[in-house]
Amino acid sequence: MTTTAPQTRGTLEDYLREAEARKVVPAGFRVLEQERLSGGRTGAQVTALRPGYVLKVLPRNTWRVAAMQAPDAGEGPLWLSGATRELPAPLACPTVDVAVHVDNDEWWMLMRDVSDGIRPRGAFTELDERVLLAAIARLHAHYWDGRNGLDRLPLAPVRGTTAALAEPLAYASGRTQSSADWVRRCVEDFAPLRMLLPRFLEMLDPADADFYIGFVSDRSWHRELDEATSTLNHGDLRRANIAVAGERITLLDWEFASRGPAACDLQHHWFLHFWAYPPEDGRPIEARAPLRDFYLAELEAALGRAIDRAQFERSWGLGWLRVLSMIGFCLADTPNPAAPEARLRAKAAVTLARAVLDA
Fold first, then answer.
1. 318 with 175: CB under 8 angstroms?
2. CA–CA dist 64, 79 (Å, integer)
3. Diameter of the chain by CA atoms?
4. φ/ψ (deg, to 5) at 279
5. For 146, what's the count of Cα atoms within 13 Å in the CB-facing half-sphere?
């Protein structure tokens, strides 16, 4: 398995000729149409190369490198290590080639275009969820507690990916200071944080807002994230990073992949899919509990043994603190954040965080 990235220097056309020589694109491939894509990505330039491909360009020297406490980690190195090229079925990664643009000091990542499989907001079905959770359970089982060389993979520790957004969030609130340059760079780079955090804090009553910024600024609970059984986490299981095609699940954007408790992956997905952007079926969040039981059954089946359920419960709570400290502001991404229903949901999220810390 290749562990060193090939180098490129020139234009897109030069790179595609090199990729053709490496047999990662068909002979004679030509781009008929280009379209810059957007959608909340932080720092990456993503361009559709039609027909059939997407090019993601990411500077190698970004705020993430300083934030995640793992200078050799990242989406490009993880693919080069073979981890995302050899995912357990039915998972797949769309990346087909990774190169370093020497002159620009950038990662160039060529991917298959799987956009047809990305569901619209709120359109993830119960069946989609079960297919996804079964696939994620197999991924987690594959690397569970150090299996298959987990510790040798170029991964950030979960405390690093947590701090990568928690510290900028605390700084952007205006209630904490930071001397780290990467924190300011993240706030400048990550538009949703700048736009939505003030709205989210306004949704909360003053006591809840103070509590929220307090636990986001606190690092003491981060240590416990590293004490639970670890596995490979994708790190950003949001709708736009999941392409469904029958039983096949393709996961995009492994930028926040980490070594940490499996519950962190699940809570990130739970928060985005059931709290911030729920399905249009009118069911309450409590009705999703059977899906977690389904995941645990699939995980234990893939492992061939039971897991420590008490430890999982503990990491499940820590996963909730983690996702709120990173992207809790997404609860304000609603047409009317001042509506009673929106405020109640924001309060419920913070109340749950209080309960976790009290426990």
1. no
2. 17
3. 63
4. -60, 160
5. 3
Distance CA 87, CA 90 (A): 8
**Residue for token pair 């299981």:** 237
Query: Per residue in 262-286, pLDDT tens?
Result: 999 999 999 999 999 998 888 999 9
Scan for tokens 């590293």, then name that residue.
226
CA R_g for the chain: 20
In the block, residue with structure tokens 């398995």: 1
pLDDT per position as a tens digit, 74-93: 999 999 999 999 999 999 99
One DSSP character per residue, 275-339 reads: IIS--TT---GGGGHHHHHHHHHHHHHHHTS---HHHHHHHHHHHHHHHHHHHGGGGG-SS-TTS
Residues of the chain with pLDDT under 70: 1-3, 39-43
What is the number of H-type helices and E-type strands within the chain?
Answer: 13, 12
